[in-house]
Amino acid sequence: QVQLVESGGGLVQAGGSLRLSCEASGRTFGSYVSWFRQAPGKEREIVAAISWGGASRNYANSVKGRFTISRDNAKNTVYLQMTSLKPEDTAVYYCTIADYWGQGTQVTVSS
User: How many angstroms from the chain centroid is the CA of residue 74?
Assistant: First the structure.
């Protein structure tokens, strides 16, 4: 079993920054962690992913150069640093490990 709790979402103006956190508990050793997002009326899309050691990191084209995924395994926490935010980044952001999902955190970017 894995439990995931996201935090750090909020309302920010375009051009601003936010840092999302995903705290994991349970059987997370060796896990590859991903961040997804879902905007109203749109399909869920992957935003970024990171391997256990952090050597492998992948990003959606829409966020490359603006978002950075990182992890602190000692704290069982994965972060998503988001900069230069745009209104189209508005969505509920979820972290995932395998088939486990958190409850999501809302990010709203105003223009």
Answer: 18
Q: What is the pLDDT of residues 2-30, one digit of tens each?
A: 999 999 999 999 999 999 999 999 887 77
Reported as a single tens digit per residue, the pLDDT across 45-71 is 999 999 988 899 999 999 999 999 999
DSSP 5-71: EEE--EEEETT--EEEEEEEEES-TT--EEEEEE-TTS--EEEEEE-SSSS-EEE-TTTTTTEEEEE
Q: Which of 99, 102, 77, 101 is nearest to 19 (CA)?
A: 77
Handedness of CA 57, 63, 65, 67 (dihedral sign): negative
